[in-house]
Every structure is written in structure tokens, then in C-alpha cells.
Amino acid sequence: MKIAFIATITFLIFNRTLIPQVDINNKIMLAQSFEQAGNYDRAVKLFEEIYSIQPQNYLVFESLNRVYIQSKKYESSIKLIEAKMKLNPQDVNLFGMLGTTFYMMGEEQKAYETWEQGIEISPENHMQYRIIANYAIQRRAFDKAIEYFRRGKAVSKNPEMFSYDLANIYSLTMQFKEAAEEYCFILDLQPTQLSTVENRILSYSNKPGALTQTIEVFENWKKGDKISYDYLLSRLYVEAKSFDQAYTVYIKIDERQQNKGLELYNFAQLVFNEGEYQLAVKVYEDITKKYPDSPYSSGSKLGYAKCLEAILEKETSIANPNWKPLSQSYLTDATQTNSVINSYIELSNAYPYSDIAFESYFRIGKIYFTKIGNLSEAKKYFERITKDASLSRFAVESLEQLGKIFIIEGDLKKAKDNFEKIISNARALDENRNYANYQIARINLFEGNFTEAKARLSKIITNLKDNTTNDAIELSLHLNTASSDSSNLLKFGNAEFLTEQKKYSEASEGYKKIASDPNAFILHHISKLREAEVELAMDNLDKSIGLLEKITEEAEKNIYADKALYLLSRIYQYGKKNYPKAIESYELLLAKFPNSLYQDDSRNAIIELRNKLS
Amino acid sequence: MDLKQTDHLKAYGVTFHALTKGLKADWLLNYRGGSFMIDYSDDLAVECRVDGVSFETLTSSQVTEIYSFVQSDDNNMDVVRLEKAPKIAVYVPPGFQPWDDAVTLVLEYAKVPYDKIWNYEILRGDLEKYDWLHLHHEDFTGQYGKFYASFANAQWYIDQQIQYENNAKKNGFKKVSEMMKAVSLTIKNYIAQGGFLFAMCSATDSYDISLAAMNLDICAEMYDGDAADSKAQGKLDFTNSLAFQNFKLENNPYFYEYSDIDIQPLEIGNFENDYFTLFDFSAKYDPVPTMLTQNHANVIKGFMGQTTMFRRELIKTSVINLAERQGTDQVKYIHGNFGRGTFTFYGGHDPEDYQHAVGDPPTDLALYKNSPGYRLILNNVLFPAATKKKQKT
Questions:
Q1: Are B141 and B101 in a shared domain?
Q2: Which end of chain B has fewer beta carbons closer than 10 Å to its terminal beta carbon, N or C?
Q3: Looking at the complex, does the CB of residue B46 fall below 8 Å from at least one CB of chain A?
Q4: What is the rounded distance in angstroms from the CA atom of residue B335 to the CA atom of residue B315?
Q5: What is the pTM assigned to this prediction?
Q6: CA of B6, closest CA in chain A: separation in Å?
């Protein structure tokens, strides 16, 4: 009986509390759906009803306040929060919320006062500042938030936590100097935070003025003498492309870190990739001198040699401008080439039979061939690769170079053999094979084997994606149209051979003869242009201009007239540097040859020259 | 300029420069796709060649023949004299790049000079210096393009919001939305006084919405710091708007749309079939819409934008539809008058980039020299240069 009574009482109590809670939950859900649907009036009514039953429910309290604000019932929000504050006078969040309501009402002063009161509950507690600052941030009152964070930082035992907040808000509001000062402060206290700080700074360093202001702060930060500043400062210099200044800092870092040149090595590679070869040379040299036994020494030596070669390449391209269709001069300054060659020799000796060694041989060969014109020395190196490393990635390229050398030397059989080896080489790409076939076709032309030449070309001209195809089509055109005039074709082949051998004077004579023969049809046209090109290669600018002018006058009678006029314009632009004349010449091309392939290039050149003149 | 023209877009630039040099230029409406007749000069010929614009040199008798052909009552063609190169302003925030906006992209390509202006310049009255004003994908409702849901944490969005807030503060406004209303109103006054407004993408509907909601708060808390007026829909004043009426606001702040004016991608259906057709107007009786629709193609590939096309039933009856998707209620291109000026709205972001997304690379117009979609923009650029003739009645 007693048990039954207790059970009944329990059931009654349980039932009394359970039914209203279910009801309230349903009402909360209903109110939330009204809120989501934008029906704030009904949401307010329901939340008020629920809140009157469960005033202790913080979720309902927050929801009610939120819908008051959504429906702009600010007075109700104030009353609601103030009533809650009477029950919880120490709850800083309530001050934050109340201040927010005032702020939304446009009563900013009152908002600040309320937030201040929230802080005053426990002014020595840094969390108060953080909470209130976050309310200010939500209202986008950034200046106020900064003020709270600064005060919080002053009382906190972990001021760096506030510095992160401050730096973040400073960078957001584009106060980069202040942000940098906070980051310096963090690094003072915790140098291990370097990568975090660096990432944060780099996330905004591309904004106008950010990098300059940040660098200035780091340069003048005297409070500590920590390596982390130097790391960051050097990174910022690199970012600002102030490589010399970065190098000065890297030297300091290297001295302190004792990492056998690791820092300098990384910096050198970065500088090399930026195309700052002179500085890279200096850095690589520095590493090999300071740390001859370092694991970075071999990489530095290779980097050093590559830098020297890159510098050489740059200077050579100035001496042999690439605007000319043909060029003749080799670089004769041995001191420049020797240093590059020696560094590659040193490398290949240090790492014999390695990829580094074969790459070094290939580069040495190329320098001897293209920069010095010492063909026998060049051959030695290329042949060494084809003999000792026939499967290396440099073998095909070496065969190509050897083929070219043998053409120059006049040994067409050997040249052909080398190109044939490319065709049969398993590592050769289609591109390499097409080029080899084209070269063999040219050799056939030089030798007068026109049928064979045509057969070779037919293998290439179907592949329109290949770079060699255009040249192959042009050569094929000459062979086919002049097939009934084999005597002139032979003369043309001979002149082409001389051109290939860079015997320009003789080639010029050869072209001249064909050009003076009006029966030579297409060969007559191309020979006139070739004559002008070889004269240009010999730097006979005026003679070349005269020849090109004649071709241009022939207009539609010469299929190369537009090409000639284009080359003439380029001579005025780059050779004579007579820009008005160049513009005039390009304009003439636009007017006379509206369907020319050179229209777009001429337009661009005119615009460029006009800009230069203005 | 029919299909023989090698660069339709630069042809407008050449004509614009001819006007700045004081040369006489006529717009031959509907003649070979709409052509320009300009007094010959060697410089002009060189400019055409350098810009890759094809041209024909005519004798006096050929000119006379063309004029009489164009003006003949048998042909839907006419001649409009272009008097003076208009002074152009483009409304863009500082730091803007030309490729953010199809109009600046094509102005740069055609080498048509323009000034960049923003809120400060508009509010201090600089608009009176300009004949033509372009708005692109700015949000005149003050909701930052309603990109909040997708990009609230993206650096560009955060930076943009701060930039606008600072700008509002500088211009004496507490809220960005309030500043945008003032800017919208100033622009409206500019049109009323004879200005030409050309808007594309979201600047079309967001601008008109801001006018209809001039005395309302339609921005949710994340946009202007306080709640939107929950009854704003019923309080919209459509007599204030220029082009649209009876539209419904999109109140969800997380939904990337301002109202139901814009046609949604699902309504477009298969993108492959998205083409719009230009209306054919009478050149002699309706020279303005004829000028705005001059083209070498009259069915043009559609393109999307934050605002892609306009719902026909929401367009005011006083507004002229210039182009639409045939057989649908989707209107691409509209034009209307307000006061002494005019406005033209063109839906979509970039005529040669079907779905231009934030951060996409710019369109290289050298690859689209004959773009009919871009040509419509340039019709608007030269339109203010035309002399107004008395309408034939």
C-alpha cells in the first residue's frame, strides 16, 4: 500500500513537470520557426510567454532579446536585459548585450558606458576586456575594441594573446605599423611564434603600404636581439624584392645559426629563381668559400656555374640580338666563358659519371659551340655524353648539337648519321625526331638529293602541332615549285649550306646570282630576302635596307614582300633606332599588306614605339 | 559594320577619337549592321590600320549614294550625326582593376578614355561634369552584393566591408546603406537633369531597389549593424524606382539575391540554349532604341551575372525592351527615360564569359574583337554623342 502510494505521488509529480516541458519545447520550436520566417511579432509573443514560465532559461532569454532586436523593439530589449542584470549583476555578458542594444539604437555613448560598467565588475580580470571587446567588434566599433584589447593587454599575464587580437584588428583596419609593433612584441616574448607571425604578416603584406610600414617597424625594433626578427625581416625584404638588404640580414643569420650555410643556400636559390644572377653568384661563392665541406657545397657549386652561364647568356643575347633572322658573332671574351667552363669542369670532376657531370659536359659543349665557336672542343664534350651516357636525357640533345656542328664543318655524312641516331633513339620525343628529319631533308637539299629531301619532309608536314612543321612546309614549297629548275635549286641549296656554315659573304653571292635570274620563280623571291638577311647578319645594315626596300617595292610580285617590309621596320627599330622611320615603315606594312601575318606584330610595335616617343 | 568588319569593338574607339579631334562623324543606323561614316584623314586611316579596324574609302558620289539609300523611306535605316565625344565616368571603388567590369574592359580595349569616380565624387556633385555614367556590379542596397553566406570570411569581402564603412564615415554617414541611398538619389537627379546612365549586372536591380526602398531599412544585421524592417516589402515605393515595379524583396540575408527581378539559373534551363534576340526598331521613328541595338548579329549568346536577366512582368510599362529570350519572360536589355535623361540596363556580367565567378581571370578582348554582346555596350557609349532630331510625326 505504501509502495503504491509513493508510486502514485511520483507519477503525479513527474507528469506535472513533463507535460509543460514538452509544451514549452514545442512552443520554442514554433517561435524559432516564426523567427526564421521573419514573422517577428508572433515570435516575440511566443518567446515572451515562454520566458514568463521559464525566466531561468538562458536560451529563451537570448532568443527573446534577439527577436526584440530583429523587430527593432530596443526598449523591450533594454528592459529584458536590465531585469536579468538585477538577478545576475556580475554577468559581464549582460553588459555586453545591453551595450549592443544601445549601440544599435544609435546611442553609442550609452553603449560605451555600459560596456565600461561590464569591465568595472572585475577590472583586474583580463577576460572582461576580451569579452567586451568582442561585443564591440560585433558592432564593428573597431576603435573601441582596440582600446579594450590594449587595456586587457596591460592587466593580462599573457599579453601576447591580446597582441594577436590587436595585430589582427590593426591589420584589418589597415593600421599596418601598429600591427607590426604587436607582432614584434609577440616575438619578443615568444620567438617560437615566428612561423605564425610570418604567415599572418604575409597574409596582408600585398595591401598598399603594408610591406613598407611593416619593414620599417622591424628595422627599428630595438627591444630585443633575437634571430626571429632577422628571419622575418629577411623574408619581408625578399617579399619587397630588396634582395641586397635581405642578403645582409641572411649573413647575420648564417653567422649565428652555424648551419653550414643552409640559410645562405636557400637564399641563393630564391635569388636565382628571381633572376638576380649577380647576387646569386655572390651568395653561392660565399657558401663554397666559407663552408667547403658543407653538404650544400655541391649544390652551391652547380648553382654558381648555372648563374655564371645565365649571366653569360644574358650578355650574349645583347651582343647577338634575337631580332635578326641570322647572326654571326661569337663571344670572344675568354675570361667570361672560362669561369663558367671551369666551374662546370670542377663539378664534373667532383661528381664523375653522375647526372651533374653529364649536365656539366653538355653545358660546356654548348658554350664551346655557341659562345666561343670552338667546334672541336664542343664535339669532345657532346661525344663523351653520347658514348658514356647514351641513355641520359642529354644524349639526344648532344646528338642534335653534333649534327649541327658537322654541317658547319661540311661533313654532311656525319651530320646525317647523328640525326639518324636521334630518330632511332628510344628516348627521343616526336619533336626531336621531326627536327632530325627536317635537318636530314636540309642536308639532302645541300647535296642535291631533292627527291629524298621531299620524302623526309612528307613525314613532318602532316603533324601541324610540331614547331618544325612550318619550316618543313616552307622548304617543301621551295622544293616542289622549283623541281623543274634543278640548277637554281642546287645553287639555292648551296647558298643555304653556306649560310648554315655562317659563311655569309659567299652565301650572299650565291643568293645574289639566283635573285638576278628572273626565271628562278619562287627561289628568285626567297633569295632576295635571304641576301638581305645575310647582309644584316654581317651588320651591313644599309645594304640590307636597300635590298629589302627593293623587295617591298615589288609588292604582290614577291611573296616575301611583307616579310621584307617587316624586317626593314625592325632594322629601323632595333638596328638604326630611328623610331619615327620604324613607325612609318610598320604603318606602310599595315596599309600595303592588310592580310599579312605580320599585321599584329606591326601594330604592337607601333604602339610600343609611340609610347617610347611620347 | 557587318561581318566583314575585322574589329567591331575598336571601330567605336576610332569613331570616339575622331569626334575628340573634331571630325564629322555620322552613324548610319542599320546600314550594313550599323556603320560609321567619318571624314577622311590620313591620321584616321593610320589609326584604323593600327587598331586593326577595316574601313572603306569612298568617293563623294559613293557617299551621296549611301546617304540617299539610308534615308530612303524604303529602308529601315537612318543617319544620326555624332557631335561630340561624351565625357565618361565609371563608378568604381579605389583599387578596382579594369577586368572586374566588362565596360571598363571594353573601354580600355577600344581606348575610350574614362574617369573613375566613387561615392565621395558623386556626393560632392562631380556628376555634372560627365555625360555618361556607368555602374556595374556594385550593390546600391548596402548589402555588399549579398555575398555574406559564401564569402563572409574571405579576405576580399572583409576588406571590402571595411573600405565601404570607412568611406561612409568619411562621407558623414553612420551606415553604408544610408550612404548608398544618398548616392542612388544623386544619380537619379543626374539622370533627371539629362545624364545618361548605363548599368550592368547587379547595379541594375540593386540600384532600382535602393530607390524603391529609399526610406526603408532593408539590410539585415550583418550588413548595417541592425535588423531590417520586417515590413519593408509592404512599404516599398515603386514610384521612386526607374525600371521595375511590384517586385518582391529577398529578405533572407544568406540568400544571394536581392529580389525576384533577376532570372534564376534554373529558369534559364540548358545554358547551351541561352541566346537573346535584339528587337528591330524603326530607325526613322525610334532612333534611340535603334542606336542601342546596332549590331551585326541579332541573336546573341547569353551570359550570366549576379543579375542575369529581368522578369518581364516586373518591368514598368514605360520602359522599352531592347532584347529578350524569345518565347520567355526573360528580358536582357532595357531602356527608359527619366526627366531629361535616360537609363539603360543590361543584365549579366561579361558577354564573353558565360559564368564569370569571383576571382576568374579577365577576358582577353583581343580574342573577341567581333563580340556582339560587347558591341551593345559600346552602342551606349556613343549614344550620348548623337544629335537629337525631332521625331517624325
A1: yes
A2: C
A3: yes
A4: 11
A5: 0.81
A6: 11
- pLDDT of res. A223: 63
H or E stretch covering B324: strand B320-324
d(CA A377, CA A505): 26
* Residues of chain A positioned with their CB less than 8 A from the CB of B251: 38
Tell whether the model's pLDDT for residue B282 goes beyond 80.
Answer: yes
Residue B133's DSSP bridge partners are: B89, B197
ipTM of the complex: 0.78
Put simply, the chain B residues between 317 and 346 with a CB less than 8 A from any chain A CB are: none
Helices (H), A54-107: 58-70, 74-87, 92-105
Q: pLDDT tens digit string along A42-74?
A: 999 999 999 999 999 999 999 999 999 999 999
Neighbours of A378 (CB within 10 A): 24
The confidence score (pLDDT) of residue B240 equals 97
CB nearest to A606's CB, from B50, B162, B174: B50
Distance of alpha carbon B136 from alpha carbon B330, whole angstroms: 20
Closest partner residue to A71 (CB to CB) among B159, B162, B230 is B230
Q: Do B77 and B92 fall into the same domain?
A: no
Q: Would you list the DSSP string of A123-147?
A: TT-HHHHHHHHHHHHHTT-HHHHHH
Q: Do B100 and B74 share a structural domain?
A: no
**pLDDT digits over A193-218, tens only?**
999 999 999 999 988 899 999 999 99
Q: Tell me: do B286 and B380 sit in the same domain.
A: yes
Listed residues B82, B117, B136: the one ending a domain: B82
Q: Strand B78-82 relative to strand B88-91: parallel, antiparallel, unpaired?
A: unpaired
Q: What percent of chain A has pLDDT over 90?
A: 68
| Mean pLDDT lowest among A80-84, A292-296, B351-355, B358-362 | B358-362
Give the Cα separation of A136 and A141 in Å (integer): 5
C-alpha B311: how far from its chain's center? 17
Chain B residues inside the 8 Å CB shell of A72:
226-227, 229
- Compute the nearest-CA separation of A351 from chain B (Å): 46
What CATH number is given to the structural domain containing B182?
A: 3.40.50.880
- Res. A475: pLDDT tops 60: yes
- Per the CB < 8 Å rule, is B46 touching A587? yes
Q: Average pLDDT in the A571-581 region? A: 95
Structural domains of chain A in order of their starting residue, each with its CATH number: 540-614 (1.25.40)
Q: Which of A69, A207, A587 sits opposite B227 (nearest CB)?
A: A69
pLDDT above 60 for B389? no
- Stated as kind and residue range, the H or E segment containing A317 is helix A297-319
Nearest by CB: A590 against B49, B226, B229: B49
Task: Using CB atoms, pick whichever of A38, A140, A591 lies closest to residue B49.
Answer: A591
Q: Show the cell assigned to A577.
A: 633606332
B27 phi and psi angles, rounded to 5 deg:
-100, 115
Residues of B in contact with A173 (CB under 8 A): 162
Give B-chain residues touching A69 at CB under 8 angstroms. 221, 226-227
CB contact under 8 A, B225 and A71: no
Contacts of B95 in chain A (CB under 8 A): 208
From the candidates B14, B47, B50, which should be mutated to test the interface with A, based on the most A CB atoms within 10 A? B50
Closest by Cα among A442, A420, A436 to A497: A442
Query: Is residue A367 within 8 Å of A341, Cβ to Cβ?
Result: yes
Q: Between B387 and A500, name the one with better pLDDT.
A: A500
Residue B333's beta-bridge partner residues? B323, B346
CB contact, 8 Å: A310 with chain B?
Answer: no
Q: What is the pLDDT of residue A467?
A: 81
Question: Which grid cell sits at B185?
Answer: 538619389
Chain B residues lying within 8 Å of A38, measured CB to CB: 230, 251
Q: Which domain holds residue B190?
A: 88-385
Give the closest of A70, A71, A173 to B162, CB-based.
A173
For chain A, positions 467-526, list CB contacts with chain B under 8 A: none
